[in-house]
From TrEMBL:
<keyword id="KW-0472">Membrane</keyword>
<dbReference type="Pfam" id="PF13593">
    <property type="entry name" value="SBF_like"/>
</dbReference>
<feature type="transmembrane region" description="Helical">
    <location>
        <begin position="280"/>
        <end position="300"/>
    </location>
</feature>
<keyword id="KW-0812">Transmembrane</keyword>
<feature type="transmembrane region" description="Helical">
    <location>
        <begin position="64"/>
        <end position="87"/>
    </location>
</feature>
<dbReference type="GO" id="GO:0005886">
    <property type="term" value="C:plasma membrane"/>
</dbReference>
<feature type="transmembrane region" description="Helical">
    <location>
        <begin position="164"/>
        <end position="182"/>
    </location>
</feature>
<feature type="transmembrane region" description="Helical">
    <location>
        <begin position="99"/>
        <end position="122"/>
    </location>
</feature>
<feature type="transmembrane region" description="Helical">
    <location>
        <begin position="203"/>
        <end position="222"/>
    </location>
</feature>
<dbReference type="InterPro" id="IPR038770">
    <property type="entry name" value="Na+/solute_symporter_sf"/>
</dbReference>
<feature type="transmembrane region" description="Helical">
    <location>
        <begin position="34"/>
        <end position="52"/>
    </location>
</feature>
<feature type="transmembrane region" description="Helical">
    <location>
        <begin position="129"/>
        <end position="152"/>
    </location>
</feature>
<dbReference type="InterPro" id="IPR016833">
    <property type="entry name" value="Put_Na-Bile_cotransptr"/>
</dbReference>
<keyword id="KW-1133">Transmembrane helix</keyword>
<feature type="transmembrane region" description="Helical">
    <location>
        <begin position="228"/>
        <end position="252"/>
    </location>
</feature>
<protein>
    <submittedName>
        <fullName>Solute carrier family 10 (Sodium/bile acid cotransporter), member 7</fullName>
    </submittedName>
</protein>
Length: 333
């Protein structure tokens, strides 16, 4: 039986179920302490596997395309934060102050890896360059995201500064580098079991979300976020995504990139990582604030998946049309 087109992906359904479970049955006391340690371990393993999955050959294949990578990184770490700050008069009245901090945190995050590459492939873009850009965004984000959070949020929500970077390096970057070093021995096994390891990736995210929302619910999360603010958050995420997609497309065309490179720039430069965002929020913010901070990340994640899936199919159809016309023109009379 075919999956209904309007039905969200399995991860989104699992996230919704996790939030509902945490809202009705939040963990507390000694159980919460166990979940905290389990979360720390899961985050470390998540980034270890990210490092082990990353093919150095694929990265080197796209590394020399520096103009594309520079544009993607500027869109991710410059354009998005500037949009978040510049649009404050428009976005801030739509949500609560805590949700707006979550929007700024969203703007500081690195790009996705798996979905950006998948959509680039579906749209027939420059796949090696997408692998390189998305992977570089993740690694650079480990250092740059805490600094951007500190700059944009100041002392309002961040544990920030060098202490935050140290925690990020210890919990995320060190496991990532260890995974890269271990790829020499476990790379084939990881490549052969990508489908199974995907469940560990998603399970780690769900564990962090449950732990964060449990703490937030106990602290009165849902009492502090009215329904109009949730609707306003949906509008904010749609505005940010529409502007990022439009501006990455415009910049790619104005700077003379090919159609394949444009596709890579659009899908790598307009996306934000849930897989990196949830663990980073867990490190950067007080546990009572994490639930509200990651709400914008979770909502933006789902919207970008649905919109980019449609956009990738449109790009793919445009790529097919010239090829079909060329084939028809060369056909014998």
């Amino acid at each position: 039986m075919a999956r209904p087109r309007l039905l969200p992906d399995n991860l989104t359904l699992a996230l919704i179920a996790t939030v509902i479970t945490a809202s009705l049955l939040p963990c507390s006391g000694s159980v919460a302490e166990v979940f905290h340690w389990a979360t720390t371990f899961a985050i470390g393993m998540l980034f270890f596997l990210h490092g082990a999955k990353l093919s150095r050959e694929a990265v080197l294949a796209g590394f020399l395309h520096w103009r594309l990578h520079l544009l993607v990184l500027c869109c991710t770490f410059v354009l998005f934060p500037l949009l978040g700050l510049a649009l404050k008069p428009l976005l801030s009245p739509l949500v609560t102050p805590q949700l707006y901090l979550g929007i700024l945190f969203l703007c500081a995050l690195p790009a996705t890896v798996q979905s950006a590459i998948a959509f680039t492939s579906l749209a027939r873009g420059n796949i090696p360059a997408a692998v390189c850009s998305a992977s570089a965004s993740t690694m650079i984000g480990i250092f740059l995201t805490p600094l951007l959070v500190q700059l944009m949020l100041g002392v309002q929500g961040s544990n920030g500064g060098l202490d935050a970077i140290g925690k990020i390096v210890l919990q995320l970057f060190v496991p990532f580098v260890a995974g890269q070093l271990a790829r020499r021995w476990i790379g084939r096994w990881v490549d052969a079991h990508k489908g199974s390891l995907k469940f560990f990736d998603q399970g780690s995210i769900l564990l962090v979300v449950y732990t964060a929302f449990s703490e937030a619910v106990i602290q009165g999360l849902w009492q502090s976020i009215p329904l109009p603010a949730l609707v306003g958050l949906l509008v904010c995420c749609c505005i940010l995504l529409a502007l990022s997609l439009g501006m990455t497309t415009l910049l790619a065309r104005k700077l003379g990139f090919s159609r394949e490179d444009e596709i890579t720039i659009v899908f790598c430069g307009s996306k934000k990582s849930l897989a990196s965002g949830v663990p980073m929020a867990n490190v950067l913010f007080a546990s009572s604030a994490v639930g509200a901070i990651i709400l914008p990340v979770m909502l933006f994640h789902q919207i970008q998946l649905m919109v980019c899936a449609v956009l990738a199919q449109r790009y793919a159809r445009r790529s097919e049309t010239p090829a079909m016309e060329t084939k028809a023109a060369n056909a014998p009379l």
